[in-house]
UniProtKB/TrEMBL annotation, chains A, B:
This is MerR family transcriptional regulator. One of its GO terms (molecular function) is DNA-binding transcription factor activity. The lineage of its organism: Bacteria, Bacillati, Actinomycetota, Actinomycetes, Kitasatosporales. Residues 1-68 form the HTH merR-type domain. The keyword Transcription applies. PROSITE patterns: HTH_MERR_2. Residues 86-117 form a coiled coil. The keyword Metal-binding does not apply. Keywords: Coiled coil, DNA-binding, Transcription, Transcription regulation. It comes from Streptomyces dioscori.
Length: 142, 142
DNA sequence: CTAAGCGTTGCCGCCGACGTCAAGGCAAGG
DNA sequence: CCTTGCCTTGACGTCGGCGGCAACGCTTAG
């Protein structure tokens, strides 16, 4: 199998495969004409890389999985180094999710406050004596 | 106030301030010697930008807040354009958090499966007759 | 023979928010 | 005068994961 076919079967591009090779992740044999040659095991390696990439793993983080497969294990995560990457990633994900939730709450609070402030201003301008609460989600005085 | 003092009071660097100026976010008056000159209102603008940046807003997303302040409003989010940015950001945050939670679950599942597989292999090798469950978090047989 | 369609290497471009020089000007203290 | 420390502009570097182009070689079909 040549680079174009492998790329297509893995749903990626030849540029990506050459990039992986330049990083030492997916070395290729060469045919007599200089063309890269791949087999089904390489496809398996590549799919492992792509799956982890889709999860948001950096390329370097996929290396233990690839080496694990090349060591003959049927699964890329059948090695301690791969499990360590999983665990570290879980920690990072938890931390990131917590942080994003915190930001989400703060932004949500700012939005609510700003909407209240604008509502009060509008009401004071319209009815200086008695401001009525307005549902901002509707956007009109229905 | 010159650029160094403003940077320090806002907890950032002069490079950052010049970058903001190059983006048209924080224009500066110039003294007779060519030095940039800032006042307290500029500090307020800058703090608004920094707060949003800390929330993960892109620079361009802070522009409505800055323009709102420069239009004379006491708060950068006292304008509809700012509220629109808040709302869009909330949507992005929700989507991102959901996605990360999904990834977290999948990675967690992979880790659990891989740990089970390794435990089974170890047990089979050691005690072919009766595999005992081992706590992977402890790491030893104590 | 020729053209199409693969392959090869190499290098620059991109995105965002700056960091890091380089080379020089200006101000203030001893 | 000299040094120190601030300021100026301009330009290149960073990080990750490729995209895209140039300029060339191989192969195969018509």
């Amino acid at each position: 199998m040549r680079i174009g076919e492998l790329a297509e079967r893995a749903g990626t591009t030849t540029r990506t495969l050459r990039y992986y090779e330049s990083r030492g992740l997916l070395p290729a044999r060469r045919g007599s004409n200089g063309y890269r040659t791949y087999d089904e095991d390489d496809l398996k390696l590549l799919r492992q890389i792509r799956t982890l990439q889709d999860f948001g793993f950096e390329l370097e983080e996929t290396r233990p999985f690839v080496e694990c497969l090349r060591a003959g294990h049927p699964q890329g995560d059948a090695c301690p180094a791969s499990l360590a990457v999983y665990r570290r990633k879980l920690g990072e994900l938890d931390a990131l999710i917590d942080e994003l939730r915190s930001v989400r709450e703060q932004v949500g609070g700012q939005l609510a406050r700003a909407e209240r402030a604008m509502g009060e201003l509008a009401s004071e301008a319209a009815v200086p004596g008695g401001p009525e609460p307005v549902c901002e989600l509707e956007g009109r005085t229905g």
